[in-house]
Specification:
Blueprint: E1 21-22, E2 25-26, E3 43-45, H1 55-62, E4 66-68, H2 70-86, H3 92-99, H4 103-108
Parallel strand pairs: 3-4
Antiparallel strand pairs: 1-2
């Protein structure tokens, strides 16, 4: 489907992949879709977790859509892998609490390596 027609689709009828690989991170600096593509009946789930609230999520939220940041996907992947490998339940809420101090860095998009390769 041409991107220009995406805004004419109903909820859950399309998926936009806005990933642009640039080095070792994903460039989510600009929303792929204009605000006119979003409405309150949608759920917009961004797989990108750095920055925490990408331009895509910000645009969707401005238009009243329910948003789900990529951090939920990251935690969910970790939980699934942990359970598959160990057979034990994963402490999702405990992990969320442990990640709280790092959320400002995720929001700024500074999680990971700096220019000098430092953490």
């Amino acid at each position: 489907m041409p991107l220009a027609e995406a805004g004419q689709c109903g909820a859950a009828e399309w998926l936009a992949d806005q990933r642009h690989v640039s080095g070792d991170c994903i460039d989510a600096s600009e929303a792929l879709l204009p605000d006119t593509c979003f409405h309150p009946d949608q759920v917009v789930y961004d797989l990108v977790y750095r920055p925490l609230y990408t331009p895509l999520l910000q645009a969707a939220q401005r238009c009243g859509a329910t948003i789900v940041p990529g951090l939920d996907m990251l935690i969910g992947q970790g939980a699934a892998a942990f359970q598959l490998w160990t057979g034990l339940p994963f402490p999702v809420e405990a992990v969320r609490r442990l990640l709280q101090p790092f959320l400002p860095r995720l929001h700024r998009g500074s999680w990971g390596r700096s220019k000098a390769g430092e953490r």
